[in-house]
Amino acid sequence: MNHETEPPRYAEPDESNVRSLVEAFYRRVDDDPLLGPIFSRELTGRWDEHLAKMTTFWSSLVLGSKQYRGNVQEAHRPLGDIEPQHFARWLSLFLNTVEARYEPAAAVQFMEPALRIAQSLQLSKFGWDYPIPAEQQELLAALKRLRTGGEPQPDLPARSGGEPFPARFVGRGKPG
Ligand code: HEM
């Protein structure tokens, strides 16, 4: 393995290393035989815009900068030719890039949201009964345990009566 070209591992995410993570990740995506063609087809002439948007997105998640405005589900809806193997490749490139650049405590801050969002995109692309690959589920569960200090997850609180479940999400409609 060539260690000379590896950048230092950061202990904490900050604006500049998030930008550089995003650039490194999409260089690998662009070079990847499976993912490269999809991204270049979709993003020709718009790479700079995409990198800036993704930097904002990750900064919002890991730095709490709250600048990202967008809809991740909607952005992926037009991509009709995405298959399970694309997600596997995306995740493996992303997790490897993060792991090489951040110390573990910082790395998990990227990994857990990536796995959660990937899962929600997979379910909406492939159907709610799509079986998320076991190793992906296990990794997400392990990261969650790390974050919560290995404590058993508390039971969900009993739901107070009254509010039907979907109301929070779909709105109440017009009164009367
Ligand atoms: C198979 C895997 C994936 C593929 C092929 C893919 C592809 C793309 C493409 C082509 C775009 C640009 C859309 C456009 O501007 O026209 C995009 C946007 C985006 N992707 Fe992915 N993506 C994948 C997985 C993920 C995952 C797992 C995440 C979770 C972190 C993610 C987060 C985003 C975000 C935040 C945007 C910008 C959304 C916006 O426009 O606001 N993607 N993706």
UniProtKB/TrEMBL annotation:
Molecular function, one GO term: heme binding
Classification via CDD domains: TrHb3_P
Keyword check for Heme: yes
Domain of life: Bacteria
SUPFAM superfamilies in alphabetical order: Globin-like
Organism the protein comes from: Caballeronia glathei
Pfam families documented for this protein: Bac_globin
Region (Disordered) location: 145-176
InterPro entries found in the cross-reference section: Globin-like_sf, Globin/Proto, Hemoglobin_trunc
Keyword terms: Heme, Iron, Metal-binding, Transport
Protein name stated in the entry: Globin
